[in-house]
Amino acid sequence: MDKLIVRRFEPGDAAAVSALVIETMRTSNLQDYGAAFIEQVVQHFGPENILQKAGWTHFYVAVDGETIVGCGAIGPYWDKVDESCLFTIFVHPACQGRGIGRLIVQTLEEDEYFLRAKRIEVPASITALGFYKKMGYTHKGGVAELDDEQHYRMEKFR
Q1: Does position 2 have pLDDT exceeding 80, yes or no?
Q2: What is the per-residue DSSP string for 118-143?
Q3: Angle CA 89–94–96, to nearest 5
Q4: pTM to 2 decimals?
Q5: 78: domain range?
Q6: Is 132 within a domain?
Q7: Domain-embedded: residue 84
Q8: How many domains are there within the chain?
Q9: Residue 90 domain-assigned?
Q10: In this structure, what CATH number is given to the domain that contains residue 113?
């Protein structure tokens, strides 16, 4: 890794973030979900979808030199002031296991949406479940079952 930094998303990052998310899902999440499901989900992560999400969240990118290698966002949970949610946390498959995901989550946990919240939720993929547990998130209400979107609902209280 060159010099890794985490910075706020800029509109010009949308295509690179879209490509990162789609490649990560097709590589890392494939083992847990299967190709047909992944291809359905990646339809919701085009550049226009990323720009839309960045419009109502605080979206961050991890940049190694000139290359975006990770991303993550935090926003209000259903317009509540005392609850927030983490979204779109991905690290490029070639860069996983190097602490980039941890750095992204730590950045999100320093954001004003995290600091004002009493409860933070994250929809965790099967693939990322262990990672979120290491970051201190537990199953929402103690329910360790996949929801309709094939995520585990995880939460952390402050």
Answers
A1: no
A2: SEEEEEE-TTTHHHHHHTT-EEGGG-
A3: 45
A4: 0.96
A5: 4-120
A6: no
A7: yes
A8: 1
A9: yes
A10: 3.40.630.30
